[in-house]
Amino acid sequence: MGWLILLAAGALEVVWTLALKYADGFTKLVPSLVTVAAMAASTLLLGWSLRYLPLGTAYAVWGAIGAVGTAILGILLFGEGTSLLRLGSIALIVAGSIGLKIAE
Q: From the UniProt record, which GO molecular function terms apply (predicted)?
């Protein structure tokens, strides 16, 4: 159950970072509201997941879901770079999160 809650929290982290981009410095109302709501919901779900998961692992995985998801959407939606270094760095974030889960 903890992992499902954490997955939802990580997905909401991606939602708020994407909405933040569209909020254009909080000058657009709807994306700004989505940003704030998704931030709150993501943090709430992260907190709930901590009932079941170790703090360090949960926080790292939550951050990794957000970082990797946002980086991939940046590539797909905004044409951000896809150099080998960038893609390799994304892979390292995933590997680090898996390592923390295995070591738990």
A: transmembrane transporter activity
